[in-house]
């Protein structure tokens, strides 16, 4: 990279739709993908992304910031945490997740999203 690179999610390089209840806009910046997910009420990873990922649980490591809404993440060991607006989170692989409440959860993800919700 030779200079400053600026991208906008409003002109995303790619939009990945889930089976239902949302989508993720992806931009490539600094050679890395960054995603802005829109997880609508009723969204659940095991219902809306699992058919795309073809894995039992989400195997992506997420590092991000919750802009709006709430999301509950359940790890394979049964432990749960809930994120809310203004919170920064790190989520390891091996989890399910679901929107909590009736507000869309908007999440900026700087994690390993190169293959997240990418249809084969």
From TrEMBL:
Protein source organism: Phytohabitans kaempferiae
Coiled-coil parts of chain: none
Upper lineage: Bacteria, Bacillati, Actinomycetota, Actinomycetes, Micromonosporales
Name of the featured protein: Cupin domain-containing protein
Listed transmembrane segments: none
Pfam families in the record: Cupin_2
Start and end residues of each Cupin type-2 domain: 61-109
Domain of life: Bacteria
